[in-house]
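Two proteins follow. First one:
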Amino acid sequence: MRFLVTRPQPECKRTADLIRAAGHGADEAPLLEFQAVAPAQLDLTAVSALIFTSRRALDALAGHRQLELLRDLPVFTVGDATAAACREAGFKRVLSASGDVSSLGELVVSKRRTIEGGKVLYPAARDRSSDIEAILREYGIDCETVVVYRMAAAGALADDVRTRLCDGGYDGVLIYSRRTAETFLQLLGSGCPDPVFSGLRAFAISQQATEPLSGYMRVEAADEPSEKALLELVLGAC
């Protein structure tokens, strides 16, 4: 079987290699490209804790002049992989919600004494599909978002990938975010016939990531928003 992996590099190659190691074909087509845009100076006035919903925010802050100050703050993360990345980056107090953004909000609220009298700083992407700020606002917790990276959409699919898609040459496409799904749909629709949509099978990391595609093709979501769960879904279909 052959699959198309659409997540950004370098994770795209890592996932494709895991699929190849399982005895299947995998093509790499990263649809989003990471670009760090962190401000040179972060306003840390009254900041009592940090929130990370993606390890890419950590990549954007690598080498930042205030990184040592940030490492001293307690950190709340949406998932275990991001939590592990925080610890590897030298953050000392890290708690993971092991779930989605709603779980993250619940975790922060349950530990609100940690940030009593202060606010939460949220280093984030420019384009976001969830609203942790609104969740925390409901509980009177001040959350300040600072954009530290953006994911630039690819302008086109590689010719060989487009040809294989149009010829029905993939048994499935791996989708890692809502924005990736939207980009994929846009690029696929610009050059492939409509029947390609109905015959294509997509495997998404979350229910939210399935939404842009659900009206066009068969889409299945992983049991939980993690690469492990997504790969189990993909390989279980082989």
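Second one, unrelated to the first:
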Amino acid sequence: MIKIFRKTRQKFLAENKFSKYLVYAIGEIILVVIGILIALQINNWNESRKDDLQLQEYEQSLIGELRTDLTRLKALDSVNSKKKKAIKNYFDYYHSENPESEVLLQEMNSLDISKRAFYTTTYTIEDLITTGNLTLFPESKRIAILKLKNVHEQYSFYESSSMQDVALYEQEIKKNFDLVLLTGLSNKEREETKSWELNPESNQLRILNNSVVESLKLFEFQSELYQVIIKETTELLELLSKNNKG
């Protein structure tokens, strides 16, 4: 096409037909510009297609991670509910009329006050923020992702602080109990820690009860946070799943 225009231009120049030469020259320029614009449009389309594919990959990864988080959160919440129920049953018996010391001790020993923390698996969110690829997402999804990240950070901070409070009471246990005896390293018991199990008013039992109460407060606090995280996670999962085929 360009060769045809060039030959025609040369013919008009040779014949002194400048006006026609000018028209054809302008036409040639327009043709070149159109070609450039088409090339740019194709390039933009390719880049947009790459972004769309990368966005789909991010969404699929994040959807999988969110589903994993939901499964773990619901499992932790279920375990916490059982722990809370057992602790409340123990204190119901503790506050009953004339609780038997041996039964009370058995109830306490059966309590599960082990501490478990929730750790999110949404590593894709960190990648999106670090690489700046969060801008691939539309505004509504960006806001939901950042909102969930903020909830995770708040949860981590508050849970860590609560566990430190519980740890303080556990330190009191170590100070007031004969750990050598409790761990089976010796059969010799000191007088100040002797036969505390048979005395509902003993200082050791009071310290243990305080530790159990702090554990209960932690479990209740965790359950409240779990519900917040579950809510935000579910909302983001539903938002991502709307237009994602993965």
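SUMMARY FIELD: The helical segments are 2-14, 18-94, 101-109, 123-131, 139-176, 179-182, 203-241. Residues 9 and 24 are 6 Å apart (CA to CA).
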